[in-house]
Specification:
22% helix; two-stranded antiparallel sheet; binds iron/sulfur cluster; Alpha-Beta Plaits; elongated; 5 strands; alpha+beta; 158 residues; single chain
């Protein structure tokens, strides 16, 4: 490179915008179809385990007894197969990437307790049954058992 072309490039760079962004002050906007990380809407998830069976890397673990759904973000390859196979459509592919870490971690989500199903209106409007009267108050007093000798008259002695 001649000195002239070097000086030309130098001047051009001095008075033009930098090619890089001042990250993190100006974070990059993800393109619309970026595959970043998987998120699960635990309110809708039924813990069926289908996503876990379909995942080619075994990144998802479903514990039905413990009511948890876990994903290892570092094992996920963002193929989106779990999103397609979920019967409840509660999985979604988010644009942002898994946060960097020194260790391969797993994110675990707990299924929230569902409220008890509401009673039908007709059933809810029914009056409560009247309380039963105290059983002991109305019962007749127990009759004492009569011994056999006392109940039968003594045999006549001739
Ligand atoms: S397939 Fe869907 S509903 Fe079933 S466990 Fe996975 S996320 Fe939950
Ligand atoms: S996107 Fe692919 S690799 Fe990632 S959890 Fe879903 S099925 Fe597994």
């Amino acid at each position: 490179m001649s000195l002239f072309s070097f000086a030309k490039t130098e001047f051009k760079n001095l008075f033009s915008k930098p090619a890089t962004r001042p990250y993190p002050q100006q974070p990059r906007e993800y393109p619309e179809r970026t595959r970043g990380h998987i998120e699960n809407d635990m309110d809708v998830c039924i813990l069926c385990g289908l996503c876990s069976k379909k995942c080619p890397t075994g990144a998802i673990t479903v514990d039905r007894a413990g009511k948890t759904w876990s994903i290892s973000g570092f094992s996920c390859i963002q193929c989106g197969y779990c999103v397609e196979s979920c019967p409840k459509k509660c999985l979604s592919m988010k644009q942002s990437y898994t946060q960097p870490d020194a260790q391969k971690g797993t994110n675990t989500f707990v299924k929230p307790e569902q409220p008890a199903p509401a009673k039908p209106a007709a059933e809810a409007a029914k009056p409560a049954p009247a309380p039963k009267p105290a059983a002991d108050a109305e019962k007749p007093a127990a009759v004492p058992a009569v011994p056999a000798e006392a109940a039968e008259p003594a045999a006549k002695q001739d």
